[in-house]
Specification:
single chain; 732 residues; alpha+beta; Rossmann fold; Immunoglobulin-like; 5 domains; eight-stranded mixed beta sheet; 15 helices; 34% strand
């Protein structure tokens, strides 16, 4: 650093002339006073001090400042920042001179800027440094943080004179780049942005999403939804294939709309138990430029287990009888029945029947509970049993199905703890519902068309036609409307209340469990002409949907389940655990924790908090920053129990190849920092822009003498000396 020192004034012509006039008048008056005293020595000294004070005040009024300038003697720095994230592997840069050639990757296109030879014309003025950047994620290349790259360059290099930014502009983590550009502008550091990549999708078929469950049941058909996005200019008919690591393969012919996306499902029936990997593929189209996104793999566990189902009913109506038969014939379901027979001294008996409502510990073993036309009192449910039902749904992820009947006993349940669970508002003036000689029909809502519960046929069109042609029902519950937060899957085709169409199939989530309302007692009629095809399929899907979350992972004294069951990247996962004492009683208080290991090997410990002392319920939260399989080890200090499980985080990382470039981001950075956007390949323009940059401004240290406390103190001191001197020479 070189240093120069100067004294400057902030004045105007008027202040200078005024000051000279004041000093001149003061000098004349001082001389006159000295002469009148006979040129006495004391008076001469006093008047000289008076003149000095006036001169100092006049100088102060012109704001004198002492400046120290520090100019750097070393060369300034030019930072060449180049994007090293995954999006730079996108092969979408077409040579306009040879458009038939294979497109280059974005990374290949910025290679010329990373050669030291091209920066030689400015090497005499600047030191050129090359710095790659991506993000601060566990796997840095899985994201792009433009703001962090710019700020780090400014912090690392004291003499930073300019920045050359080589990127596609696709930032997806960190602060907005505009904030870093503002800081650079304040430091007078321009950014010369070089954008690379296509602003629109090249011809591509992208298998965007596959939503497979985390586990399945052997010999039970599961439906796997998928989404395909197309940027082709025409419709594309393609055969989608699903291949299991066990060798099974399923295919389906679909038509993906031009410049749109398709949502569909594939059905798969596993024949073997064990861990399995499913791979879904979409064949590449001839003109497709990106073939790395046509395949998606995910793990799945195939189990051989029986769901525990409890049927509770008052009288053996037809709906109850056929539902019981359907569930008993399902090899994956174990059915227990409680038939009250109000007014009689004994409850129903026989194979699979119990004599009394289960205890708290016994009730906890059931995955799904069907409540038929039962209520409280009259030899049926008690208030305490209703509370147990509510708690097993809320804390233990069980499911409950409300199936009202023409006796209207469900109206009494709304006066109990079950009112919170009930997904619809019933008409209090019509507890027995409505009957009709003309059969009514279901009509699926938009949610019903999407739901897997109401999917009884392979295609959407066929499924919609089926629901319109199913045998009708001649009784339905007097439901006025669905409660807030519930999802209506089907309504009455013709009948309405004052608040809209009568809801017939409604679902909701309550606590950690699920609730379904079936507003008719005529589903058993679906067997007409087709036997058990649709009736069994519907109730089998309901039972497995309700029990799915609860059976994700369980041991002898611990159960772990989470929501959502297939989390996506950066989505918060709610982990729920039920912990029991070795005796089977719920653990009221305990130290429960889960150690979660991500695919990269990074481990994180989640501490659970008690969410229901009475039921041994604990919960915690986890947000994944990596896609793929995560291993979980759940432990409890008090019981020494250990449970191992896993979950799969769906979706690609935020940073991936194939996404369009975002030149508008680079434009904004260059504009705010007072830099410039340079076209790819125009190296000469960057060199010229850098060569005409002015030298770095000097660092100036400014001392304002006119307001400095030492100057003010000196003036006050001189005034004091002047006043004392007047007394000494005998002046008043």
């Amino acid at each position: 650093m070189s240093e120069t020192q100067t004294l400057t004034f902030i004045s105007s012509t008027a202040t200078v002339l005024l000051g000279i006039g004041i000093v001149a008048v003061t000098a004349v008056l001082c001389f006159v006073a000295w002469r009148r005293s006979g040129f006495a020595r004391g008076t001469g000294l006093l008047e000289s001090l008076r003149l000095l004070l006036v001169v100092l005040v006049v100088v102060t009024l012109n704001q004198p400042e002492w400046l120290r300038e520090y100019r750097p003697t070393q060369k300034s720095t030019l930072a060449v920042l180049w994007d090293d994230s995954k999006s730079m592997q996108t092969r979408d840069v077409i040579d306009q001179q040879r458009p038939a050639d294979t497109p280059k990757t974005r990374r290949e296109c910025i290679e010329p800027f990373l050669q030291e030879a091209i920066w030689k014309p400015i090497s005499s003025r600047m030191d050129v440094v090359f710095e790659p950047f991506s993000s601060s994620l566990p796997d840095p290349r899985e994201g792009t943080d433009l703001a962090e790259a710019l700020v780090n360059a400014m912090d690392r290099h004291e003499q930073l004179r300019g920045v050359v930014l080589l990127s596609d502009g696709d930032w997806n983590t960190g602060e907005p780049p505009i904030r870093a550009a503002t800081r650079l502008r304040m430091q007078e550091i321009p950014v010369f942005a070089v954008g690379v990549g296509s602003e629109s999708h090249l011809p591509d078929i992208d298998l965007l999403d596959v939503d497979a469950p985390s586990f399945g049941v052997v010999r039970k058909t599961m439906r796997i939804p998928f989404v395909i996005r197309s940027s082709l200019p025409r419709d594309y008919e393609v055969t989608v294939s699903l291949t299991a690591s066990t060798g099974e393969e399923i295919t389906k012919q679909v038509c993906v709309p031009a410049m749109g996306q398709l949502q569909d499902t594939l059905s798969w029936r596993p024949e073997k138990t064990g861990d399995c990997t499913l791979t879904m593929r979409v064949p590449a189209e001839d003109s497709e430029r990106i073939e790395t996104n046509n395949e998606h793999s995910m793990p799945i566990e195939i189990r051989d287990e029986a769901l525990q189902v409890l049927l509770v009913e008052s009288f053996p109506r037809w709906e109850y009888r056929y539902l019981r038969n359907a569930l008993e014939r399902d090899p994956g379901v174990e059915v227990t029945c409680l038939l009250f027979h109000p007014g009689l001294t004994k409850v129903g008996g026989g194979r699979g029947y119990v004599k009394a409502f289960p205890s708290r510990q016994e009730l906890n073993e059931f995955d799904v509970i069907f409540l038929g036309d039962v209520g409280i009192g009259d030899g049926q449910l008690t208030l305490e049993q209703c509370k147990l039902l509510r708690d097993v749904v809320r804390n233990h992820a069980a499911g409950v199905v409300f199936m009202p009947g023409l006796r209207g006993r469900h109206a009494t349940l709304l006066q109990t703890e079950l009112d919170d669970l009930y997904p619809v508002v019933l008409d209090p003036t019509q507890p027995g519902g409505w009957g009709s000689q003309t059969p009514g029909q279901f009509e699926l809502t938009e949610a019903g068309h999407r739901s897997l519960l109401t999917n009884l046929e392979e295609s959407d069109d066929t499924n919609s036609e089926l629901w319109q042609s199913l045998p009708g029902f001649q009784w339905y519950a007097a439901a006025l409307r669905a409660k807030a937060g519930c999802e209506v899957l089907a309504v009455h085709q013709t009948e309405s209340s004052a608040q809209g169409r009568v809801p017939l199939i409604v679902t909701k989530t309550y606590g950690t469990g699920k609730v379904l309302f079936m507003g008719t007692d005529g589903a058993w009629r679906w067997r007409q002409g087709v036997e058990d095809k649709y009736h069994y399929r519907f109730w089998g899907q309901v039972a497995r949907w309700m029990a799915y979350q609860r059976n994700m992972a369980k041991g002898e004294t611990m159960r772990l389940f989470f929501s959502p069951d297939q989390p996506r990247l950066q989505q918060t996962l709610t982990l729920n655990a039920n912990v029991m004492e070795p005796s089977g009683e719920p653990l009221s208080q305990g130290d429960v924790a889960a150690r979660i290991v991500a695919p990269s090997g990074k481990a994180e410990t989640v501490r659970f908090s008690s969410s229901g002392d009475e039921w041994g319920a604990f919960s915690g939260r986890f947000t994944s920053e990596e896609p793929g399989q995560h291993e979980v080890t759940l432990t409890c200090k008090q019981t020494n129990a250990v449970l191992k499980a896993s979950f799969f985080v769906q979706g690609d990382a935020a940073e991936r190849a194939g996404k369009p470039a975002r030149p508008e981001v680079l434009d904004e950075i260059a504009r705010v920092s007072r830099g410039k956007v340079i076209k790819l390949g125009n190296v000469a323009e960057i060199i010229h822009s850098l060569s005409v940059l002015p030298d770095p401004p000097a660092t100036i240290h400014r001392v304002q003498l006119w307001s400095h406390p030492l100057v003010a103190g000196a003036l006050i001191l001189l005034l004091g000396v002047f006043w004392v001197a007047r007394k000494v020479v005998g002046l008043i």
